[in-house]
Amino acid sequence: MDLIAAVVWHWWIALLLVIGAVPLVIATIVGYFTKVVAPRYGPRQQRDLNAQSTEENS
């Protein structure tokens, strides 16, 4: 009887860990893009202004 209860609790603990891990992974990916990738390219408005100025200079 104890073995059956252990299997049931095993699945519930796994479910709780997955529910906690998925948002953590998503937050890590979003944080990486916000802090590392986005500053490399600058804000969209600034990129558009830079593109327009290079077109006018051509």
Question: Could you explain how this protein is built, in words?
Answer:
By secondary structure, this protein is an all-alpha fold. 93% of the residues lie in helices and 0% in strands. It contains two helices and no strands. The mean pLDDT is 81.
The SSE string, one letter per element, is HH
Q: Supply the number of helical segments.
A: 2
Shape: rod-shaped
Distance between the termini: 80 Å
Biggest beta sheet attributes = none
Write a brief caption for the model.
Helices cover 93% and strands 0% of the residues. The chain has 2 helices and no strands.
Considering the chains and any ligands shown, give keywords for the structure.
58 residues; 93% helix; 2 helices; single chain; mainly alpha
Give the secondary structure arrangement, pairings included.
Blueprint (H helix, E strand, L loop, with lengths): L1 H40 L2 H14 L1
